Amino acid sequence: MTFTADRATTITFSGGAFTRRPLGPLRLRGEGRAKADGDFGVTERTGQRTATHLDFGPGIYDVTITPAPAGLTLAGTLQGPLR
Protein backbone atom coordinates (compact mmCIF):
# COMPACT_ATOMS: atom_id res chain seq x y z
CA MET A 1 0.00 0.00 0.00
CA THR A 2 1.31 3.47 -0.82
CA PHE A 3 -0.02 6.93 -0.02
CA THR A 4 0.99 10.56 -0.19
CA ALA A 5 1.28 12.35 3.15
CA ASP A 6 0.37 16.01 3.42
CA ARG A 7 -0.16 18.48 6.28
CA ALA A 8 -3.42 16.78 7.23
CA THR A 9 -1.89 13.27 7.43
CA THR A 10 -1.53 11.54 10.79
CA ILE A 11 -0.31 8.11 11.82
CA THR A 12 -0.96 6.39 15.14
CA PHE A 13 0.06 2.90 16.23
CA SER A 14 -1.47 1.09 19.20
CA GLY A 15 -2.53 -2.36 20.28
CA GLY A 16 0.40 -4.13 18.63
CA ALA A 17 0.10 -2.44 15.22
CA PHE A 18 3.36 -1.58 13.47
CA THR A 19 4.95 -0.64 10.18
CA ARG A 20 7.91 -2.29 8.46
CA ARG A 21 10.62 -0.49 6.57
CA PRO A 22 14.24 -1.23 5.72
CA LEU A 23 16.79 -0.58 8.48
CA GLY A 24 18.27 2.87 8.23
CA PRO A 25 17.60 6.41 9.33
CA LEU A 26 14.12 7.84 8.84
CA ARG A 27 13.86 11.65 8.64
CA LEU A 28 10.55 13.26 9.51
CA ARG A 29 10.07 16.94 8.71
CA GLY A 30 6.89 18.90 8.91
CA GLU A 31 4.46 20.82 11.00
CA GLY A 32 1.99 19.53 13.55
CA ARG A 33 1.95 17.44 16.73
CA ALA A 34 3.99 14.44 17.86
CA LYS A 35 3.98 12.16 20.91
CA ALA A 36 6.56 9.59 21.97
CA ASP A 37 7.17 7.28 24.94
CA GLY A 38 10.58 5.92 25.96
CA ASP A 39 13.75 7.07 27.73
CA PHE A 40 14.79 10.47 26.36
CA GLY A 41 17.56 12.95 27.03
CA VAL A 42 16.14 16.39 26.25
CA THR A 43 18.32 19.45 25.61
CA GLU A 44 16.57 22.82 25.92
CA ARG A 45 17.78 26.41 26.14
CA THR A 46 17.52 26.16 29.93
CA GLY A 47 19.60 22.96 30.18
CA GLN A 48 19.24 19.21 29.96
CA ARG A 49 16.71 16.82 31.50
CA THR A 50 15.35 13.32 31.08
CA ALA A 51 11.80 12.36 30.13
CA THR A 52 9.74 9.21 29.54
CA HIS A 53 6.93 10.90 27.57
CA LEU A 54 7.16 13.71 25.01
CA ASP A 55 4.11 15.65 23.79
CA PHE A 56 5.14 18.22 21.18
CA GLY A 57 3.25 20.80 19.21
CA PRO A 58 1.77 22.27 17.40
CA GLY A 59 4.93 23.45 15.71
CA ILE A 60 7.66 22.71 13.19
CA TYR A 61 9.80 19.59 13.62
CA ASP A 62 12.81 17.98 11.94
CA VAL A 63 13.50 14.59 13.55
CA THR A 64 15.68 11.66 12.48
CA ILE A 65 14.95 8.20 13.88
CA THR A 66 17.94 5.84 13.64
CA PRO A 67 18.13 2.13 14.57
CA ALA A 68 20.46 1.54 17.54
CA PRO A 69 21.56 -1.59 19.41
CA ALA A 70 19.07 -0.99 22.24
CA GLY A 71 16.16 0.21 20.07
CA LEU A 72 15.87 3.56 18.31
CA THR A 73 17.62 6.90 18.63
CA LEU A 74 15.57 10.08 18.10
CA ALA A 75 17.46 13.28 17.31
CA GLY A 76 15.96 16.49 16.06
CA THR A 77 14.86 20.07 16.40
CA LEU A 78 11.39 20.99 17.64
CA GLN A 79 10.10 24.55 17.25
CA GLY A 80 7.07 24.77 19.49
CA PRO A 81 5.78 23.74 22.91
CA LEU A 82 7.16 20.53 24.44
CA ARG A 83 5.38 18.92 27.38
How many β-strands, per DSSP? 3
Oligomer: single chain
Order of helices and strands: EEE
Sequence stretches where pLDDT stays below 50 over 5 or more residues: none
Query: What spatial order of strands do you see in the largest sheet?
Result: 1-2-3
Describe the structure.
- By secondary structure, the chain is an all-beta fold.
- It has one domain (1-83).
- Helix content is 0%, strand content 60%.
- The protein has a three-stranded antiparallel β-sheet with strand order 1-2-3, with no helix packed on it.
- It is globular.
Give the helices and strands, then pairings.
Elements: E1 26-44, E2 47-68, E3 71-79
Antiparallel strand pairs: 1-2, 2-3
What key phrases describe this protein's structure?
mainly beta, 60% strand, 3 strands, three-stranded antiparallel beta sheet, 83 residues
